[in-house]
Amino acid sequence: FLHFSLNLPKVWLHPKEFTMLYCSIDIETTGLDFQNHDIVEFAAVIDDLKDPQPIEKLPKFHAVFLKQSYNGNPYALSMHSELFKRIENANKRNLEECSVTGARFMSLEQLPIALEVFLLQNGFKKEKNGKIYVSIAGKNVSSFDLPFLKAKVQNWENIYFLNRVIDPAILYYNVEQDDKIPDMKTCMERAGMAGEVPHTSVEDSLIVVKLLRNKLCK
Known about the structure:
Strand content: 15-25%
Oligomer: single chain
Number of strands: 7
Order of helices and strands: HEEEHHEHEEHEHH
Radius of gyration: 19 Å
Distance between the termini: 32 Å
């Protein structure tokens, strides 16, 4: 058995054959109520923990969702005042892309197809059943982002989000001093990352990538 293992073809041992592709995703919403509030922004950043590339070169998908009106609470709406100005401008001028951020303007119903194209262009593959299986990462992604997305978008076409998600917070939990899982700001501080939590979808997605790499990648 040992002799057989040592004489396997080199292709089986090449590190490029082993990947850990995942999407760091983040949404921005007008509140916490899945049924009554809206998603205004979505971002996905693709990373490979086994072959990390420079952060600035990672594939990024950024969408802003157009509506004539939005339901939300005052605090959440005020957080996104600049975004709503861009949305209003896009609605008036029928824009498809934001010149400032590069985000694509679309309806929420268009998200699954646009995201599928992005995934297929950046390393993900369809299985024989036509599904794309996606490992996702994010702070509170399983308790907030995914339930919100699935409540608002009924048909995810060919995308299947795997149930096992990656939340960086557990990597920064200190058993000796924490009485709860740390928030994003605390995780950033413990990783030596300066600044505040941006609360914009692309920047928050990138922070998750950096937090994971800080603990898992050399």
